[in-house]
Amino acid sequence: MRQKKLLFALLLVFSACSIFAPKQQSLSDQYVTGLGLDETNSEEIIFHLKRDKPLAGGNYQLEIVPRTAYLNLVEKVLDQNDKTCFDIKIVVREFPQANNLEKWKIKFSPVVDLDADKDYVEATWNNVASVVEKKIAGPSGTRPEWTSTGTACVSSVFPLENGFKLKIFPNFIAWPFPESESIDWKFDRYVLENGKVELKEKGKPSNYKSYRGW
């Protein structure tokens, strides 16, 4: 009887762990192309394309979602068909001079494995929202936190399923942190063969897991 109770308790623990375990991102380029995805919604696409990165020792939090043609189709976005765009959000603490996203510089490269300046194109800002300030609890009382969102675009269409890289330049970075950071997207490549979606090539991303917390 005691063993049955113990087994039942263990089953409950494993069940709870499976329910509350964080969802893992997929690196499939299907979330870029839509190949083989019939009922995927925009939230699912964004989850798998989004990259999170802390900057400036964690005082800035960066979130980027590429506006792929498939995501635009699902969300019925019609004004980005002749360019490549990225939805970007920053959350800033400690340094108010960095809280305006429009002052940050974003550079795009369709080449993942090289890091030469000639491979990058600087993006222009569209639809940058007003900075939102709120108070958060800190070790010595409340302190301000600033959020800014916008869309950065380059004026050409690129096949993002081939992989790409962004270089991020905040307008202010305190010493000793680097003045820029790179984020790359590399995907598992899938193709349609004999009516079936098959894996063609494995991607090797540098930093695709969502950053949780500060």
Helices and strands, with pairings:
Layout: H1 2-20, H2 30-33, H3 42-49, E1 51-55, E2 60-67, H4 69-75, E3 84-93, E4 105-109, E5 121-122, E6 124-126, E7 132-138, E8 141-154, E9 164-169, E10 181-185, E11 189-193, E12 196-201
Antiparallel strand pairs: 1-2, 2-3, 3-8, 4-5, 4-9, 6-8, 7-8, 9-10, 11-12
Q: How large, in whole angstroms, is the Cα Rg? A: 20 Å
Distance between the termini: 46 Å
* Beta-strand fraction estimate: 35-45%
Number of domains: 1
Count of helical segments?
A: 4
Order of helices and strands: HHHEEHEEEEEEEEEE
* Overall pLDDT level: 83
Query: How does the overall form come out from the CA principal axes?
Result: globular
Structural class: alpha+beta
Unreliable segments (pLDDT under 50, ≥5 consecutive)?
4-20, 207-214
State the share of residues found in helices, binned by percent.
10-25%
Give a count of the beta strands, DSSP E runs of length 2 or more.
Answer: 12
In short:
This protein has 214 residues and is of the alpha+beta class. The protein contains 4 helices and 12 strands. It has one domain.
Report on the architecture of this protein.
The protein is of the alpha+beta class. The protein has one domain. The chain is 18% helix and 36% strand. It contains four helices and twelve strands. The protein has helices at 2-20, 30-33, 42-49, 69-75; strands at 51-55, 60-67, 84-93, 105-109, 121-122, 124-126, 132-138, 141-154, 164-169, 181-185, 189-193, 196-201. The strands form three sheets. Strands 1, 2, 3, 6, 7 and 8 form a six-stranded antiparallel beta sheet that branches. A four-stranded antiparallel beta sheet has the order 5-4-9-10, with no helix packed on it. Strand 1 (51-55) and strand 2 (60-67) form a beta hairpin.
